[in-house]
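Inputs:
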Amino acid sequence: MPVRADASSGMVLLTGNSHPELAKMVSERLEIRLGEATVYNKTNRETSVDIKQSVRGKHVFILQSGSKNVNNDVMELLVLIYACKTSMSKTITVIMPYLPYSKQCRMLRRSSIAMKLVAEMICKAGASRLVSLDLYKKEIQGFFSCPVDNLRASPFFLQHIKTNIPDYKNAIIVAKSPGVMNKATSYADRLRLGVAVIHGEQKDEEESGLEDGRQSPPPNVTSYDFLPAQESKQKPPLTVVGDVGGRIAIMVDDIIDDAQSFVAAAEVLKARGAYKIYVIATHGVLSSDAPALLEASPITEVIVTNTVPHDLQKMRCHKIKTVDVSLMICEAIRRIFHNESMGQLFRDVTLDD
Amino acid sequence: MFGEIRDRLFRFQKHSRNTRNEFFGTHPSLPEDILDPPAAGRSSRPTESLIDPPPTTTPSSRSVVIKPSETANQDISLLEKSVDHSHPHKDHPIHHPTPPRSFFSSSSLAVHPNVETAHSSSEEDLRMPNIKVFSGSSHPDLSTRICERLQLEVSKASLKKFSNKETNVEIGESVRGEDVYIIQSAAGEINDNLMELLIMINACKIASSCRVAAVIPAFPYARQDKKDKSRAPISAKLVANMLSVAGADHIITMDLHASQIQGFFDIPVDNLYAEPAILKYIKESIPNWQSSVIVSPDAGGAKRVTSIADRLNVDFALIHKERKRANEVEKMTLVGSVEGKVAILVDDMADTCGTICMAADKLVEAGAEKVYAFCVHGIFSGPALTRLNASKFEAVVVTNTIPQDENMKKCPKIQCIDISMILAEAIRRTHNGESVSYLFSHVPIC
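Outputs:
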């Protein structure tokens, strides 16, 4: 029977508007009631937070995930944290399964490192700890000046593969681009499968050859022989390095947002002889017309977790399946609250994952 | 050949004189309206055709007219963007035989190693003012090379240890109002060198230097940049915090282990790449490189390897190591094919070389004709050199971010690419306020 959150349990679970279903599931598992706080946008679109119960001396857990309204989510989170901080809560732990702006974690063409800015803001607002799931790059842990826990969704996915894909022993793990090679090998290790890599002409804006080539002056100044020019990259068409003929191809990645690259990779895999193609992604952001693209592609199934709300997309594409990770979040909250070790949660996690 | 480079450097510097004027106009130690330096006391150099005073009196787009030489035209177009078109002194012809000097600078004259070029180019007029380059004790050879290319002398500082092994740093020249660059690499005794760097930065900072930049070719503790096990520290973040607290305003480094380390700092970080230099070396020194295969010794380097393979337009492969289990030998599988080709292993660090030696064996087994290895940072600790001597490599090529003289003596397979020019160019461009991005795809010659 759910008890009131402040009935001497010392734990308060608050949430913003990004993912109410996940918050409900987590609070049910924890067997406490969601803390009473209203987070809403005023008429002038400013975020307003009203915490209706006492948080003085309590351990506050704020559950907020990235979703379609990224900037609103970030602002809600910051205002919630600060509200709890000024209301004398003991500790504030932020649970953010999908960390927004995590792809902007390095300098690209005179951009800013937005992840660093968000990290600073979260720590400055008063968070004493952050828990996230499958960070885009593990180095993001160093951007925060508070401790960061990077939980993994891989145990859930491995379980799902073993139970739901009947002949998974005849599968091969495919990395959609060389950057995800580490993740692919960690899955391949644990499933005792082979690995393959797809490489070539991809419209990947942020990872193009002009990464740090903030080109000024223009790059083809070949007549000026003081500094000899370097050739540009000549990307071959999409090729698969590794053998996928007659096997099930399982593509692993951390975010599936714009499905274009997955669809292109799936076409190539199909052409090379893979008879079933699965896509496993931790965060199913699935924006714009990704569901339609996936529906029309040779991909058999797309497996995502419920870190990002994607109900609308599920209705439009029947290939999307969800794996529930609220168990892990609940366990993390419980262990943090009781100051227990979190080592059990990382038991089956390899160095590369 | 070095003289040619110097001449071109001078032409470059002359063209950027206006830029420098703008830059130094806001210099704290210079009064705002110093533009025409006093001619007294300066050796008046014979006006060559290179410097013609701009005859134009209208504030047109060209404020510096140089007799067109084939390279000069490009310089103008490059620098036009940086020249301020509303220069107040544009109306009368400007003679700038010497750039404005800081009144408080006590920079001594450089002793020119080559006497005849000293007369012909009068380098004294064209050395960069307001810059001091200090060297830590980790890599004095690299610092000398960098300063040679910058036409400077390494500035004096005494680096000693007290009898209780505490580091003692004394800066031997005035750094008031100067742009200070401290060159220290993570080599040898890393903790001692790191402490020395921090103390030097702090010494320059409290001696009222204008800006202190740390040039760290090999970044210390770069591999401990994430919490990959329980209770593991993120030492790279700690080093970043320490450098910021010591007072560094700018970091210049080369080939960081992960480019996210740039985000650990709140100050600007320039992460230069040795990749253009490596590509140049491959093209010049490896016969039939067009039919080679670039191989990554582990899964994490796949992105680096595909980038190089794309630029050379060759194939790539990678080696996938399966985890050791009970009663199982660690198996290495090759993804891709190297049959009958020259294999080039590329990695960013060569520490104990266990992985790359096993990878070389595997590649030879799989049919590669020859195996080369390219690593940017050649740490070579522990049994690395004995392993390399016994390995199947044709050559192991590293850069001189870490001193390699000793290692090259012990292992004849090791060859060294000199990257001092990339760092020198970065320092020069940072000091002059020019764009550094050109270096990310170009290699300064030799």
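Remarks. The domain at 274-417 of chain B is CATH 3.40.50.2020 (Rossmann fold). The first strand of chain B starts at residue 131 and ends at 135.
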